[in-house]
User: What shape does this take?
Amino acid sequence: MSDSDPDADGGPSVFARVVAPFVDRSVAERLVISVAAIFLSILVGFALVLVSGRIAECSTAAWTMPFTGLGFCYNPFEVYVVLFNGALGYPFAVGDPGLFNPGWTPFNLSFGLTLSETTLLIFTGLSVAVAFRAGLFNIGTQGQLVVGALATALTVLALAPLLPAGPVAGLVLIVVGTAAGAVGGGLWGAIPGALKAYADANEVITTIMLNFVAANVAYVLVLEVFRAEGSSVVATRYVPEYAQFPSVLFPASTDFALIALLVGVAFIGGLYYFVEHTSFGYDLRTSGVQAAAAEYGGVNAKLTTVRAMTLSGALGGVGGSVWVLMSEGRWMASVPDLGFDGITVSILAGNNPIGVLPAAFLFGVLKGGALEIGFRTDVPTELVAVLRGLIILFVAMPEFFRMVGRYTGVAGGPGGAGGASGASGSGSADPDESAGGDGGEADA
Amino acid sequence: MRNPLSPASLLEGASESSYVRSLVVGTVGVLAVLGVLGLAFPESLAGDLAGIVFSTSTATSTARLAAPIVLAGLGGIFAEKSGVINIGLEGLLIISAFASVYAASIVGVGNAVLGVPALALAFLAGIAASTFLAAVFAVVCIEFKADQIIAGLAVWLIALGLAPFMSTVFFGGVNTPNLGARVGWQYSATMVVLATLGSWWLLNRTAFGKHLRAAGENPKALDTVGVSVSKVRYAGVLLSGVLSGVGGSALALSIGQFVGAGETMVQGKGFIAIVAYLFGNYNPVGTLGAGALFAGLDAVQIRLQQLGYAVPDTLVQTIPYVVVIVVLALVGRTQIPEAAGEHYETEE
Amino acid sequence: MASDFDRRRFIKAASAAGLVGLAGCSGGPSGDGGDGGDGDVPARIGIVYSDGGLGDNSFNDAAQQGILQAEEEFGIAYDESEPDGAGEFEQFQQQYAGSTDPAYDLVSTIGFNQGDALTETAPDYPDQDFMIVDTVVDEPNVASYLFREHEGSFLMGVLAGHLTETEFSAGAGETDPDSTNVGFVGGVDSPVIRRFQAGFEAGVDYATDDVDVTTSYVGSYADPTGGQEAALSMYQSGADIVYHASGATGVGVFQAAQEEGRFAFGVDQDQSVSNESFADVILASMVKRVDTAVYESISNVIDDDHQGGSTTALGLESNGVECVYGDQIGGEVPEEITTAVADARDEIIAGNIEVPETTSN
Amino acid sequence: MNPAVHLDGITKRFPGVVANDDVDLAVERGSVHALLGENGAGKTTLMNVLYGLYQPTEGTVRLDGEPRSFDSPRDAIDAGVGMIHQHFMLVDPMTVWENVVLGNEPKTWGGLRVDGEAAREAVVELSERYGFDVDPDATIADISVGEQQRVEILKALYRGADVLIMDEPTAVLTPQEVDELYGVFDELTEQGKTIIFISHKLGEALSAADDITVLRDGVNVGTVAAADVTREELAEMMVGREVLMEPATSPQEAGDRVLEVTDLDVEDDRGVEAVSDLSFELRGGEILGVAGVDGNGQSQLVEAITGLREAASGDVRYRGESMVGKTRRDRIDRGMAFIPEDRQERGLVMSYDLVENGILGSQHDPPFANGGRLDWNASRDHAESVIEQYDVRPPDAEAEAESLSGGNQQKFIVGREFERDPELVVATHPTRGVDIGSTEFLHDRLLELRAEGKAILLVSSKLDEVQGLSDRLAVMHEGEFTGIVDPATVTEEEIGLLMAGESLDDDSVEGAAIHDAAGDGTDDAPGGGSDGADDASGNGIDGATGGGEGVDA
Assistant: This one.
């Protein structure tokens, strides 16, 4: 009890210490903090819209502040209504009688776009998360996605003529193409992994550099070698229609395929199972939180690093495959920043595969909503980028919310205030730990 | 054994690191081989390359391109030496680039406020904006114990959104209009040299420099002699804001405009700055050298394109990034301060 | 509006900066109401700009000018979007096309890299009128406007080739008659920009045998520093005229011209007007009448005469592309050279000169 | 006359814990005062109150009779109180003088420059006055631990300390360095300085201090003059009951050769040779103790045996099989158990609960893993069984490792490793930071394993522990065994000499060799000792090989 343990300061490696607060916090606290961070960033964004609405010039007031009569060019309430309601295709009838719009169906354009983005972010979010769990900061998902996407496009384009057109060939092409994307992305991810393991090169820097290299090399390859004939943009030919994920229910123009989302959800489940319920998953996350302990437990640190980065890269590559086979139908230059957004998704999710689903959905909403903001309001869409940055900033400072929680007397979920200080001893009885078979998720 | 009081050898610290030595030797060696080859075969690629590398045009180009990289890199040293890894340098450059142009446009080029000309005020505004953002980062990291890497990433993303956002609010587009005036590169180059020497002095000769080092290596040692680790770290992070602010302002004011499309006109220079100070092994002079190396590669790359070699331009642009990876793989990890990335809490 | 620099904005910004608050009174809305419903406008236009955004003093700003002109003349209403990257084009197009409240009479898409997105979008909205600038989308509801930039660039090449061999000085620049090269700075190395390059090179070749073109691609449309360095190295290696096709990157090219006391050619718009501070070195600009194309298409829609399925190739003949001499110093170009340029223009229109669209290497 | 330091009714509470409860402490000027107690007794907390790191919940600090209130160490320093922590508060890459003046740098040029000359002179002057031999320009990382400690003392003196608090000052020193430290104590007290040191070692308190105050569970049990008290009395004050000082070992036949180390060279992280040309062997049913000052290659030796570090050359044979090229995993699979020296870095994953920690090392093996899939039910049963058998408190398999006290963490590790049914146990500092009750328990378990015929390599810096438990005792100095002796007959002074790198006369070595002979044969023993450590161990292993065959035949 009162053992103050004078020799308790030998901590794990610098990086493990940096990462540790993000992988070992309880799920409930994580959730509370994420939600609080989102609200706080919305609040700051609100102020930003208000101030800039006063600075910007326009002919008509979009919003007049009650009591003061001051006019603002931007309506901060409308911004958020448009952002969140619009991303879903306006299911809520704001201001009108009745809560819901009667004509609303989930299979609308905006919601489709939102889900399309969600689907892609699932893969990149998982990619970052799995590296994070192994104690590696993979900023290179973007590059791995670019390479994986190109591998997919080229593989499908090369194989398509060999197979008779049709759904069977489509299935084969999708499967093979996705596998090619995984291999391409995995190999690209293995490079910084190997550099980290065997040359001690900081993966944060090498992955940033490899992003530039991937983008440039892929660009040149397509520009000089694989460019579709006559195309004025730098892009490959389209893969055959039957080799793309079919859009069911949603309008074809959404570039969204429900089946791809289901594949993404299956990946989430698979990765969760892998991390929590397999020996290699145990190795991986142990080397993430405490590398020295992992080595002690017989984990080959170098190999685990390479494997984790390869797996991470492969997931990024699959993200690229889905981008090609669902969204674009081909590889084209100016790949969207899905890899970078994957970092934010993973952080918001606390690097928990399950958490990636809501986090990806939130960023899907932000994406879909940004388009609506650009479309419906005069507020610059960059606002959403600011919001994204703020969310990450706030998620990164759990201590702030603990302090707020302490001041206001609201405990942040089970074990909220105790955390790493260790002072509270064993006081936390886990309420959600009754299912016998699931012991592993206590620390997820 | 090192004597810190010996007549100031500026490469002190670098000399004790075999990897910096191998870098220096390698660079000099490559240049020497190139020079010899160029003299021997003036009509070959080597001759052309030598012609580029040893031209004054390349040199001035290097000086211009290096300014924001070196300044942000110096800032990064102060933050990281104090124990706070600031990966958000890119964001600091972006926000100061915008703020400086914005301030100059308010005052109006040619006007002055209290005798301070607009361009000087622009610098001050850029520095203020960057320092403010750095202060937010510092509070978040030091007070609220945020993860430094993630908070740094957030700083980048916020600036990446905020600068074009404000540009759109103020000027109706992500790019600002051109001021029609600019700051000559000689000013930036002078600032770079002064900042490098000043940083070196601050780090190696002043009490603050010693405290900074102690805060990053063994914060408890500093705390127990009664120096506040938090204050030292705040100072380190704020300095990174000040220096990045100079860099970002110099970048934008050298053009007289802020361009906020895509990655903005900063174009990843903040990340190269991190690589620069790691290469320079936290030594300001080494950082200057590394910054000059990357800028020089870029300058050579631009000129190489114009010689019409049939290598795709986009591939040539990849050279600096590949060099960074190769060098990093060869020399491995630099000496990161022992306590960098860790939170420090005074007991009680 | 944004193209010629709006001083009032700066004053607004100045007062706003002090306040961040609500006390100030100069910012914010200036009028009250007046917009009214949708019914009283002759047409509602949605416009999706190219990435690079407004304020590039070139391509997008030119397009906006067309809209503003239409607003002034017809009283149309419009909404505009600046996508962040190529990935967003399709979504923005669909947003406008799919919108019913308000419904858009025409969706203008600016830039060749929107073409593929529009190829996918247009068939999904057969009742929606689209127009696209800079590429062809072969759909019955899309009016395509294509510029023959290589032809315009050819003229710039002719002008550059002749000028560089002449001793000439105007504004802040001068040529060196011994110079044997001129420069071309591209944004991102891509087929479209190579078309500019090809035309320019052909034009220089046509004008003289003694002058080479050095080329550099900066890799971005938003990197003025890179543009500046590329141009500087060209000037310093003897070029006295640099032609750019690189969006906001081009500002750096003008900067370099001023620094070195040489000349630069603008692109898309008359940049000696849109970038007034560099008027003393911008000798000429290869103007693409993007504004005309946008304006025309709006006008057609109002007249219920949308040119869906047709391609309007805007070349020299239709004044879709032009060599426009600089506002400030263009008038000083020797007459024999302007004549040579005018002759070349006639020859192209007459079909006697075939301007290549791709570079030789 | 007022005492130099008078702590008056100090109470310090932390959330849920009372670290000090109404503690009085008076220390006379010019005296050496020992603060004795077990880990967790509240000694360090009390001293942190005196040093201004903690503010007392209740009570007053008086210096020379004046009540003082320190908000920070700065205040304490200004009042003349200096503290030398157990883990030195030195900045490794900086020089001695930079460390000494840190925070109080003399400045010139209007504060723009640290006056290094003045600082260096001050350091030289101070070290001469107190008879220290310290190079002011040496880098901390390059000097010995004893020197580092002197730098710490200089640091306090430079700040004008009259009262020096030292936390476990001998923990990392060789016996000879300890003697030197006592000499420093004399110098300091002669010049009027007052010294308070924290210790949990009875002998040290008795030999170095004038007065001894014993703390137990945060309470002052009593203050006695060192001259008036016996070891046993002190021990009883500390623990609160009579203590058996040494566990009983019974002689036992050694079994099969389990571990053979031959000509082993191991380098440390910096590539410096940490273990040089070491050879020894270990048999079933035997405990080989390795004593020595920390940092003499014990860690590297253990890591090379357990597979955490690759040997530069030489061979480790485990049950007849060479381990060269075998990974840590291979060694775990072959039944090596390992209690690591740093349980919080290696032994446990602090953020995992005990269920997950229970399979660390066995995560690929049945019954916990089947074809790559983890069976959490089996893991939970396992963890619960360890918790029960080894009395881990609180008995909650879902408690996170970091929420356990150090002793309970250690018990869990020991339990997990012992339950593997290992053939070889490598135990490093198994009782460091563990309370006395648990220590006894862990010692008993080690002896049980020995009785079961397991081989045990026991590395510890606690002399009484290795001496009490081992069948043979090897003393390590700078990567070599300076001697393998019989723990039953060797004296503490002799061990001290060996720890300092000296060799012994024939007699005691002979004793060890005879003990060796139980399994080894005796042929080489008499020659082995006198001419140095290298020979002794080298010959020993030669003899062992030959002798082993002899036994078989």
